[in-house]
Amino acid sequence: MKPRDLRDILSAFNAGRMTSDDVIREIESSLYEDIGFAKVDHHRPIRTGYPEVIFGPGKTSEQVVGIVESMLDRSHPVLVTKTTFETFKCVQEVSGDAEFNELAGAIIIRSELETISRSGISVVSAGTADLNIAEEAAITAEVMGNEVVRINDVGVAGIHRLFDALPILRDSNVIIVVAGMEAAIASVLAGLVSMPIVAVPTSVGYGSNFEGLSALLGMLNSCAPGVATVNIDNGFGAGYLAAQINQGLTVKSE
Amino acid sequence: MKPRDLRDILSAFNAGRMTSDDVIREIESSLYEDIGFAKVDHHRPIRTGYPEVIFGPGKTSEQVVGIVESMLDRSHPVLVTKTTFETFKCVQEVSGDAEFNELAGAIIIRSELETISRSGISVVSAGTADLNIAEEAAITAEVMGNEVVRINDVGVAGIHRLFDALPILRDSNVIIVVAGMEAAIASVLAGLVSMPIVAVPTSVGYGSNFEGLSALLGMLNSCAPGVATVNIDNGFGAGYLAAQINQGLTVKSE
Amino acid sequence: MKPRDLRDILSAFNAGRMTSDDVIREIESSLYEDIGFAKVDHHRPIRTGYPEVIFGPGKTSEQVVGIVESMLDRSHPVLVTKTTFETFKCVQEVSGDAEFNELAGAIIIRSELETISRSGISVVSAGTADLNIAEEAAITAEVMGNEVVRINDVGVAGIHRLFDALPILRDSNVIIVVAGMEAAIASVLAGLVSMPIVAVPTSVGYGSNFEGLSALLGMLNSCAPGVATVNIDNGFGAGYLAAQINQGLTVKSE
Amino acid sequence: MKPRDLRDILSAFNAGRMTSDDVIREIESSLYEDIGFAKVDHHRPIRTGYPEVIFGPGKTSEQVVGIVESMLDRSHPVLVTKTTFETFKCVQEVSGDAEFNELAGAIIIRSELETISRSGISVVSAGTADLNIAEEAAITAEVMGNEVVRINDVGVAGIHRLFDALPILRDSNVIIVVAGMEAAIASVLAGLVSMPIVAVPTSVGYGSNFEGLSALLGMLNSCAPGVATVNIDNGFGAGYLAAQINQGLTVKSE
Amino acid sequence: MKPRDLRDILSAFNAGRMTSDDVIREIESSLYEDIGFAKVDHHRPIRTGYPEVIFGPGKTSEQVVGIVESMLDRSHPVLVTKTTFETFKCVQEVSGDAEFNELAGAIIIRSELETISRSGISVVSAGTADLNIAEEAAITAEVMGNEVVRINDVGVAGIHRLFDALPILRDSNVIIVVAGMEAAIASVLAGLVSMPIVAVPTSVGYGSNFEGLSALLGMLNSCAPGVATVNIDNGFGAGYLAAQINQGLTVKSE
Amino acid sequence: MKPRDLRDILSAFNAGRMTSDDVIREIESSLYEDIGFAKVDHHRPIRTGYPEVIFGPGKTSEQVVGIVESMLDRSHPVLVTKTTFETFKCVQEVSGDAEFNELAGAIIIRSELETISRSGISVVSAGTADLNIAEEAAITAEVMGNEVVRINDVGVAGIHRLFDALPILRDSNVIIVVAGMEAAIASVLAGLVSMPIVAVPTSVGYGSNFEGLSALLGMLNSCAPGVATVNIDNGFGAGYLAAQINQGLTVKSE
Amino acid sequence: MKPRDLRDILSAFNAGRMTSDDVIREIESSLYEDIGFAKVDHHRPIRTGYPEVIFGPGKTSEQVVGIVESMLDRSHPVLVTKTTFETFKCVQEVSGDAEFNELAGAIIIRSELETISRSGISVVSAGTADLNIAEEAAITAEVMGNEVVRINDVGVAGIHRLFDALPILRDSNVIIVVAGMEAAIASVLAGLVSMPIVAVPTSVGYGSNFEGLSALLGMLNSCAPGVATVNIDNGFGAGYLAAQINQGLTVKSE
Amino acid sequence: MKPRDLRDILSAFNAGRMTSDDVIREIESSLYEDIGFAKVDHHRPIRTGYPEVIFGPGKTSEQVVGIVESMLDRSHPVLVTKTTFETFKCVQEVSGDAEFNELAGAIIIRSELETISRSGISVVSAGTADLNIAEEAAITAEVMGNEVVRINDVGVAGIHRLFDALPILRDSNVIIVVAGMEAAIASVLAGLVSMPIVAVPTSVGYGSNFEGLSALLGMLNSCAPGVATVNIDNGFGAGYLAAQINQGLTVKSE
Predict the structure, then answer these.
(1) Residues A47, B199: Cα–Cα separation, whole Å
(2) Which end of chain D, C or N, has fewer beta carbons within 10 A?
(3) Phi and psi dihedrals of D55, rounded to 5?
(4) Four-CA torsion D223, D225, D226, D230, nearest 10 degrees
(5) What would the pLDDT profile of A131-146 be if each residue is shown by its tens digit?
């Protein structure tokens, strides 16, 4: 509640247009709005085109559908991550606009209001086994209003492929790098470009990769600075973070 | 080497102004410049005001001085991190402009060319024991041409202090959060603001904090998206990453 | 065996009402009661209304039914945790009073003697995926004679929801907090209330949450004091501990 | 700010005793008090006799003295944990009432207002090497207004000593158990008594105790319920938690 | 090859009963017996009644049957551990004497020669979920010629049950303790008896038991000496070790 | 691009046989060949007989077939590791020459050009459960043009078997050792032979073997030097490394 | 308290030789003796010649001297482990019989009563850096009344040295093996001999030995059964366990 | 003992030149030579010019000198690793030929017989902090008779420096790569060259590098095959392994 609004309320009270109880109720609820940004921040503001994101694992199809239904009135985009085709079929029954991205295992309901699309995000993945996490990152950024360039299978075992992609990557505002095993591509790329890199370690590998630990530590310990690490297999988090960075860039530049 | 440059060389060769050997030498060296971006990227481009950064630990004062001396001709800023006053005294002998930031344990030699200063970065630290890492992040961003707002001691044990700082934080383009122990402030803040958060876990704590592991895992597992994690105690990396994000914002907006 | 009881026995012996063998048998069995508190403590005293608790995993339905049957004569409440509907159907055949709590995966046979219900315990969970562990904590406390207030889905990603719940929480004697991922809610809440918090890390999350390790370390390293941590996913242990604390409060106040 | 207070303010405004600006200022500051409980909660309420607690490690003597000085006007107790005699000497210069507990490595400045002392807390330690952490727990509870019974050196290697102490322990409201190595005493005791146990794993041991990990895991995995675990070597946290539980008991019973 | 045997061979050679080639062949093969103890040690000597032990997991039924068949001529006992009823059915087809121990998941073919049975081994298990590992330990010791006393469900949560068993345990030469979770029973018992304890941590538990790590560390860090730890869930290894200790005792005493 | 080639191009340009654009295109593409070694290095040069290796896990049969088909024109050997019989059936449809190695779970399509076969590699495995990884190592080396001696089941529990194999092993140029559990055979063998040992820890074992960690650490910490460790269960990597070492030996000796 | 004793007490009571209070006191104290075995078990029975063992680390010289003094009346052996020469000098002042074993860092005060010495224990160490732990094991066994054969520097890097020692080792009742790094000697030896092996992993090594973890896991995962593992660097525990096993052997055989 | 030798002995015995006792003694001692290769293998054959290597840490200067002295008669090279200048001064007193390599912290006494020097080994290090381990690797290979090319400071943060070094590296038979932090250089290089790479992870770094764990896991999980990993900071082991590989190459080619 801004002082300005409060001044209006007090005037109304003073003028008898509001009772003491009205003022108390108003202040309390506005107080909640003053504290309650979280609601807006949690759902993520409608005005920014940020989607409601539902983390799929551990939720029944019924629970997912229930949350989706409660969102449908709000007319903004919906994204369900790490979910299944079965859940998609259930969601489809309550929203004909629902699409299923099989690679990422994601359900998307695009906002009708969603019109602007900012360029500037690239998603680079090291191996074919990293593709589903890379796709999760890419569609997250897309649903949040960005155009995404996808560059797959450019791991350092064949580093020339990465060099071939450099001109495109250097045109990005932010680069998402998705890699498992030793994830060396993150620090190699960080040594070659000047924009921030959002690094997603994946659980791709076996043995002493310890479910993604080797990739995670590799990215956190990059000898080149400029690497922002998110959780193992967290494609959504990477797409979200990249969108935040990219939006700042384009929003600021208006 | 751009096609354009190559065309010029071929013209010169064609016109007899360059011998075949000249062309080969030129192409090879330009090739190195074409591949050799790394040199530029490693040192970090002079034009961006990015500093040469020297990681202090494990280097003798002599080694640090040697590297600093080799940089002094290039007239761009120098930063030595996690170093000591003893090393500073040695550096001071070769550069009168050297300053020592005691809190961060850093030596700074500011570039004469460094004139622009972008606003937009805040550094938030959770406890007084996190101050030195927070300061390392702050001066890194400053040396890279940014104005930094420092907000200290706003850990979630007294969450009102964080709320008091929200108006300032919401004016930032990017927020660096420095916290040890459980590092809850990173996810709390990520739920309250819309800009990206660069999270630095610190080794502050004891027992099952396991030298910063609890803070690291806490930040990587933030229930709110928008958190970019760097290595434990890596204040430099956080300042660098924040500068990259902030520079993009202001450079793009020109 | 208290000295008082022993005195009575000796009088009876002295008066010829008990033979030497009677006394020995009595002392031995009472000795067992004197040493054998464990039996009482293990089962947990009938008089306190504490339930016999059977940990479900790794036991066949037959084993569970066998233990339940041996308890049915004692007329006090029974609780089987982390069990299945299949096992419930088997238990139901030997006790028509058995109920199945699907959310918690628990079988409950309420004691007929169970009449008092103490208020004072709240169970707070951070996300919908934490609900089953939260419910396990809640029904444990209920079966032990407590009224429980359940507050779900108040993770720090939308911290206003937690603030909305503060008035209720501040009326509690003890608060159980159930959270996965980084579990920041435990330390945030510990900084806001004055009563003890029983913290249950859950294995909810993925990647570097390492099956609940991030939540466990987060709770153990809370920057605010007043957090009592139990094992990962140990809803029962939290409900039990909270009941102990709450019972002390109300029993003492008589 | 309670509705009642707000009503008074509105009456004053209505009666012209407060201007519109007065009301805004009053609401804002009270708002801060309404959100700002944290300040009170952080320092811990004067009325409860809770001390300001300063975690010693990583702070210079100057920093400690500075914080202590800022507290001296408030006339409530001060506790500095895990500190040194050198720091104590510096604190003593600004407060003649400062005492040094050598065993715990703690500085205490008792509140003049501190008069009530609740009984009900026992501190049990397993070995002589656990004594300093046990003492930290004990003095924390004492400074918070509790009488503490100390029972040392009752590890399970000589379990009869623990049995000897049972009558005293069973008169407690809450028992703090401090143990390193395998910390078996926590679960043994939890199987013998009915009140909650606050368990402090210590880093006492060597080899595969891995700096307290074995004790921590042992306590978290107690086969008997009723064990509340805090961080390794966190005597302060245990004392604080026990005081919260014990205070609830006595305050409620009034 | 003992000198005595060599002398005989040389005499035979000297006497022309053996050719030079005979001697070489004899020495080489006996040499292999002199080096080749391993065969005997690996299979474990027929004369000691030690069984051929086949570790079941990762072997097909065909592989198990093949190894069993190759053993059947040698007339000494066979033990297959951690196997299934399906494999047992296959083994039964080649040996009618095969028995299946369902609790331990073990196949046993007793030696006809096996006649002596040494008393002196007790197997103590903490919870019902530890029973299968305890049984694996027990039958291993039995197949190796020992009488085994089984004492189940005496975990420290009800320590009186352990005390009741002490007279029996004190009559043992060696005690096998099988426990999961925090495994406190190992150190409690080691503080109460004078004979060596072979401790088997089990993977029973959940959460921060980390697949048996808590029990393993608990046993390794026992505050009472006299605890010999084997691998997690290694009932066979414990039974074998106990049999070695017990055999030494009785063999030496002849 | 070698200077020699460049000189030819420049001559052609000079002679008017190439236009400026031709030269640029040529240099750029050759540049790619100069940088682009990676392609050759990644696929591994046709001329060295190195196979295209496809890591099976996480790829659908369709994906594997797709990659195999794109390789079939190149006429060099193909190896698919850690795959299934189902995938083999699919591959067989596009290549009648495909063979399935059931033990290793590998698909092989031998090159028609593959004629030379170098001797010098032995593969030693400790237990029958290590056989599939050992076979993966062996066929990798075979497909790369080596003869491989397989020596199975020579773990240190029966060390005489290892000694029997020493004469064969000492004729090798490089020895691959495949072992799980404590993997002691690697350091024992390294103390007995003079050629390099490529050590493959396997995940064979249970409990505190922690999915191969014990074998991995055992091999990395070998008290005898000369042990080259690869990832847990990485039979392919070991076979590849051994082939590299062996090829160097024979190629150099020509 | 045995029934027999109880019967005597009741007779005395019946006969008026004991009052009711006498009986209660007697039963209670005998009860304590019935429970209180621990005292005897903890100190370890004088009659077995078991020493009082004082773990040195974390105790001041004053504390050590205090404990030693309280033992001196009991006339049985004293052992202080992992202590310093400084502490020895202090102990020497109260007991002229004190000896210092520099290699083990141990103080020994031999019992005058100690006369029997059992043969049968060998201590084998892998490298010279393991010597101090090996010596700690040896003197522990010696002080407990055993003759100990020491065999040093027989690591598997030169396995012939181990074979040379086999005849001596095969004459032992129990063998203590002390090794760091990968500790392969434990499983090699377990495959060669028939008596139990007490394995002490040491923290000798660096890097991925992780303070003894590699040796610990190596010993726990021995592919040959018959290995009893104790804590890292726990020479005392190994000596104690070996003495228990050996004493059983010789005591039983009387 | 070879059959041929045995035949000679038998002839001698047959001819009466040897008694039966002579033959037994001869066979037994030769047996030891047949088993006893270890001595030769341990010290490492004089003929190969392999040095006696003494691991410095945990040995007193006296111990080092003692071992060195016992080697001096054998006239072959000596290498003491990870030692100090103080120890060097002591060694120098018994051998004037001793040299101290300060960077590696190594003492070297070169063999007079050492004449051949094979080329073919390169040592590449990623950062200046890796230099001492790289030097340890280099001098180990040198003392074993190899010429070593050192290429320092070519980490992937400035990948052009690595490309500049490729021509030299491609002339090697084997490349040692020494890197800390994420150690990406190992897999990058493995993707660019065809010879085996010996990878040494170093403990260089901080925070989540966890004393070299990140580099170790990075190297073990290289996405390009051909990487042989040794222990963290094990420069000696890498130099030794590379020398074995290189020696095989040149010896075989004779």
Answers:
(1) 26
(2) C
(3) -75, 115
(4) 50
(5) 999 999 999 999 888 9
Q: How far is D216 from chain C (nearest CA, A)?
A: 10
Preferred mutation among E2, E17, E20 to probe H, highest tally of H CBs within 10 A: E20
| pLDDT beneath 70: ranges in chain E | 1-7, 24-52, 73-76, 112-116, 248-254
Q: What is the DSSP string of G87-137?
A: HHHHHHHH-TT-EEETTTTEEEE--SS----EEEEEEEESSGGGHHHHHHH
Q: Which residues of H touch A210 (CB under 8 A)?
A: 217
F positions 153-212 inside 8 Å of A (CB): 201, 203, 211-212
Reduced to 3 states (helix: H, G, I; strand: E, B; else coil), residue G177 is: strand
Do F231 and H252 make contact, defined as CB atoms within 8 angstroms?
no
CATH class in words for A118-253: alpha beta
The residues near E166 (Cβ < 8 Å, ≥ 6 apart) are E192, E193
Residue ranges of domains in chain H: 21-109, 118-253
Q: What is the pLDDT of residue C25?
A: 56
Contact E/D (≥3 CB pairs under 8 Å): yes
For F63, the closest of A128, A159, A207 (CB atoms) is A128
Token output for A63: 């629970």
Q: How many CB pairs under 8 A join G and H?
A: 53
CB contacts, 8 Å: H245 with chain F: 196, 245, 248
Structure tokens belonging to residue D158: 């000589």
Instruction: Name the strand (E) or helix (H) holding B78.
Output: strand B78-81
Amino acid making up residue F253: S
CA pseudo-torsion sign C93, C96, C97, C99: positive
Residue found under tokens 């490729």: H166
Chains C and E are in contact, defined as 3 or more C-beta pairs closer than 8 angstroms: yes
All residues of chain H having their beta carbon less than 8 Å from the beta carbon of residue E26 are none
* Burial of residue F90 (number of CB atoms within 10 Å: 0-12, 13-18, 19+): middle
- Residues in chain H predicted with pLDDT less than 70, given as ranges, are 1-7, 23-52, 73-76, 112-116, 248-254
Neighboring chains of A (3 or more beta-carbon pairs < 8 A): B, C, D, F, H
Three-state SS for chain H is CCHHHHHHHHHHHHCCCCCHHHHHHHHHHHHHHHHCHHHHHHHCCHHHCCCEEEECCCCCHHHHHHHHHHHHCCCCCEEEECCCHHHHHHHHHHCCCCEEECCCCEEEECCCCCCCCEEEEEEEECCHHHHHHHHHHHHHHHHCCEEEEEECCCCHHHHHHHHHHHHHHCCCCEEEEEECCCCCHHHHHHCCCCCCEEEEECCCCCHHHHHHHHHHHHHHCCCCCCEEECCCCCHHHHHHHHHHHHHHHHHHCC
pLDDT digits (tens, 9 = 90+) for D135-186: 999 999 998 889 999 998 888 877 877 887 888 898 899 999 999 999 999 9
Is G119 an 8 Å CB contact of chain E?
no
Sign of CA dihedral D132, D133, D134, D138: positive
Confidence at A212, pLDDT banded by 50, 70, 90: very high
| pLDDT tens string F17-48 | 877 777 665 554 443 333 322 222 333 343 33
pTM for this model (two decimals): 0.86
The DSSP H or E segment spanning B25 is helix B20-35
CA distance D15 to chain C (A): 31
A47 conformational bin, left if phi > 0, alpha if psi -120 to 50, beta if neither: alpha
Whether F103 and F205 have beta carbons less than 8 Å apart is answered as: no
Asked if this assembly's ipTM is beyond 0.85, the reply is no
**Chain E touched by F72 (CB under 8 Å):** no
Beta-carbon contacts below 8 Å between B and C = 112
